[in-house]
Design goal:
By secondary structure, this protein is an alpha+beta fold. It is built from eleven helices and 15 strands.
């Protein structure tokens, strides 16, 4: 609500969007984990490049893809890496990873906005907060029938996805009577986003408590699952093929992980992991994964129904019994971030609910 905390994204920056095409169908075929990992891979590819350039850039995880806003100095390198990741994804999984870009200058020229701020959610973790409909405009353009996708120019020989990990098993909620809720909110009027989003977050806070209380990740529910199949999936996303040494070394590391987590350093890592879990995304929409009781969810749905029926939002919600987590670990001390989604494709399923609502709305408008 405080406009002075938001700044216009520079016009010479670029919005880059990755998205697994037909992700809903892939998840119906049981490929939720693969879709999540491909999305995580796109983030890791970009972060490894901007890290070498001594930069940080805003990025947003969406379950089946990701969005970035990057300056011109790293644009070519990040696009090239993502196109290599797209090619590897196609060869390894026969999945089509869309990779597209739209200049911020074009977004502004067509009358859309990108206003960005930074929110410190804990002592260790900050997230970008974006208001405006610019990213939605870019996504529609990239997913539109007239968009021409670029080909990789192969500036680099290998795709660098170092640091990407998927060693954790599905994670049960913090308490046995809890469930996992994946929630997606879209404001119907872009110029009222701030006020509407505040109303939604206030409702979530009042019903579920603080972000720390409603986090879906807790230390006692974390379990390493360093199976050969899981390591093999990670290896295919990272390398596009089989590497025996990688398989053996990571299986050994996974087998020894339980001992490491009993050490002082291991316990610090686990505490930081919970803090560094990415469970709230505000990118012109709200995406969040929370845990709580079915009774709390019923109260939330009642509150959101009232806001939706008032013509202020569309919302999609999906309930699962577990969450899933993929990770980017540059080091075990404080440079790691963990991407959380509801099991069974929580974010994607929540988005499907909204798409159905929008489809019904368009149908009604056509009838009128």
């Amino acid at each position: 609500m405080e406009e002075h905390l938001f700044f216009k994204v520079p016009a010479n920056w670029q919005v880059i969007i990755t998205d697994v095409k037909n992700s809903t169908k892939a998840m119906q075929e049981g490929l939720h984990e693969t879709v999540n990992l491909v999305a995580t891979g796109s983030i890791v590819a970009v972060l490894n490049i901007v890290y070498k350039a001594n930069l940080t850039v805003p990025f947003f995880f969406g379950g089946d893809g990701a969005t970035f806003i990057v300056p011109p100095g790293v644009f070519d390198a990040t696009m090239n890496a993502l196109l290599l990741h797209r090619e590897n994804t196609k060869n390894s999984f026969n999945m089509d990873l869309r990779v597209g870009s739209v200049s911020v200058e074009e977004i502004y020229a067509d009358g859309h906005e990108l206003n960005i701020g930074k929110l410190k959610t804990s002592q260790l973790f900050s997230i970008p907060v974006l208001l405006g409909d610019g990213l939605s405009y870019a996504e529609k353009k990239i997913k539109g029938p007239d968009y021409i996708f670029a080909d990789a120019s192969y500036i680099q020989d290998e795709l660098d996805l170092s640091g990407m990990q998927c060693r954790w098993d599905r994670i049960k909620p913090p308490s046995n009577n809890f469930e996992i809720v994946s929630l997606l909110i879209i404001a119907r009027e872009g110029n009222k986003q701030a006020a509407v989003f505040k109303k939604v977050i206030d409702a979530v806070d009042n019903i579920y408590g603080t972000p720390q209380v409603r986090k879906p990740i807790s230390i006692d529910k974390l379990k390493i699952k360093a199976t050969l199949a899981k390591i093999g999936l990670e290896m295919k996303v990272r390398m596009g093929g089989f590497k025996l040494l990688y398989m053996i070394s990571n299986w050994i590391k996974g087998s020894l992980a339980s001992y490491y987590f009993r050490t002082k350093k291991g316990k610090v890592y686990l505490n930081n992991l919970v803090e560094l879990s990415d469970t709230l995304v505000i990118d012109g929409k709200i995406n969040t994964v929370i845990s709580g009781t079915p009774e709390q969810r019923a109260l939330l749905e009642t509150a959101l129904d009232a806001i939706e029926n008032n013509g202020e939002i569309y919302y999609g919600l999906f309930v699962s019994s577990e969450s899933v987590m993929s990770c980017y670990v540059r080091n075990l001390k404080d440079e790691h971030v963990h991407f959380v989604d509801g099991a069974e494709g929580g974010y994607t399923k929540a988005a499907t609910v909204i798409k159905k609502k929008l489809g019904l709305l368009q149908h009604r408008d056509t009838e009128k």
